[in-house]
Amino acid sequence: MTLEPLELRLARRQFLYQSLSGIGGLALLHMLNQESWAVGLAARSPLAPKAPHHTPKAKACIFLSMLGGVSQADTFDPKPALRKFDNTVMDWTKERATDQPNLFAKPRLILGSPWEFKKYGQCGMDVSDLFPHLATCVDDMAFVRSVQTESGNHPAAVFAMNTGSPFPGHPSVGARTTLD
User: Fold this and answer.
1) Shortest CA distance to 173 belongs to which of 22, 67, 69?
2) Which terminus of the chain has fewer Cβ atoms in its 10 Å neighbourhood, N or C?
3) Do 73 and 130 contact (CB within 8 A), yes or no?
4) Distance in angstroms between the alpha carbons of the first and the last residue of the chain
């Protein structure tokens, strides 16, 4: 079966979108960096992966994705506004007029974190009292607090973060990465 030029372009775009979305794009950059031709590409493209400015020390990465785990607002990401609105009901009157009325049908109670936060390490990372021992080694960890998605649906957001697609059935970051 041969693909017409338009079908070929659409298939290629769909492949690129699914492959480069989410953490899969990081895996692709790693694989390209391993290829010898990627070194020549770096000289031509300002967006190509470049050599790090220092020798990496990390030998491994532990990626924890804890659906149903402890909230970020109780661990490493203090939310001061949660304390201000603690134990109040969220007003959904504007959201009920949207095209997803069932999503906002029930009143939601806002709860602040019961834990106190302090800054630790030279990096000044906020850590809650929930992790007093882990707080002593924050300078040896990397914290990613910039992950976001279009979906307010947690399972779909987790699929999008791990695979680049909000729908199940796509390879996850673990299936795409290799260790040397």
Assistant:
1) 22
2) N
3) no
4) 38
Task: Please say whether the beta carbons of 4 and 10 come within 8 A.
Answer: no
- Token readout for 29 is 């950059």
Give DSSP secondary structure letters for 127-166. Answer: EETT-TTGGGGGGG---------S---HHHHHHHHHHSSS
d(CA 33, CA 112): 44
> 8 pLDDT exceeds 60?
no
What is the Cα–Cα distance from 136 to 147, expressed in whole angstroms? Answer: 25
Tokens 């260790």 correspond to what residue? 179
pLDDT of residue 180: 47
pLDDT in the model for residue 105: 58
pLDDT at 58: 77
Query: Residue 27 is which amino acid?
Result: A
Of 134, 20, 21, residue with least CA distance to 76:
134
Q: Which of 4-8, 34-38, 145-149 has the highest mean pLDDT?
A: 145-149
- Percentages helix, strand, coil for the chain (3-state, rounded to 5) are 40, 5, 55
- State the Cα–Cα distance between residues 140 and 126, nearest whole angstrom: 14
Nearest to 171 by CA among 41, 36, 2, 24: 24
